[in-house]
Amino acid sequence: MKTILFADDEIKYRRLVTMFLEKYGYKVIAVEDGEEAINVFYRRPDIDMVILDLMMPYIDGIEACKTIREFSDLPIIMLTALGSVHDEVKGLNVGADDYIAKPFSNEKLIARVNALFRRVEQTEIQSISGDGLTFNETTLTVSFDEIDIQLTLKEFNLLKLMVVHKNQVLSRLQLLDKVWGYDYEGDPRTLDTHIKSLRSKCDIFSDRIQTVRGKGYYYKGA
Questions:
Q1: Could you tell me where in the chain the CATH 3.40.50.2300 domains are found?
Q2: Is 80 exposed, middle or buried (0-12, 13-18, 19+ CB in 10 A)?
Q3: CB 3.0–4.6 Å: which of 6, 8, 35, 221 could bond 166 by disulfide?
Q4: What is the pLDDT of residues 135-162, one digit of tens each?
């Protein structure tokens, strides 16, 4: 489960955003100003993303973003009610990865969060080493010990996601959310079918695709 640090001085937004993100499988740490966000960031190495409101007391979102960016390349989303190009550029210039103007729909927020996580994961996949795997986004093949294995798009994205988070159990909800999309309403058993097919095609290392009964799946990395 990914953890999101969310800072906003408006209690209405803290409650609504927290409730919505948790609905889609994220763990949320909600704080009310930039100073508290920075303190929590220092104490919690498990944070995967930061969402900062621009206008906050004590330390605003811009300063909080600058401080966090000095120590981490975590994905950061800025929120603001101002909606001016100047404020958007200012937020991006200090290291924010994305920008959402208030008011925004819950669907827009979750789409941006999911898209940013996917972008980060696609970048991370390029640096994976030590497991003998090479991913080719163009041909949807994965190479293992110089053997190319052709996969479908869903199989490719499933394997890639598990390898990015190797040795970390991913729930069925997380896998469906990341690979099929947050609004997927089909049969959840399709995930099991794709895992079975993935193991069959990747039989030379299928023992690395592990099942944790009642919880989900994970890739057993070196």
A1: 3-121
A2: buried
A3: 221
A4: 887 788 898 888 899 999 889 889 988 9
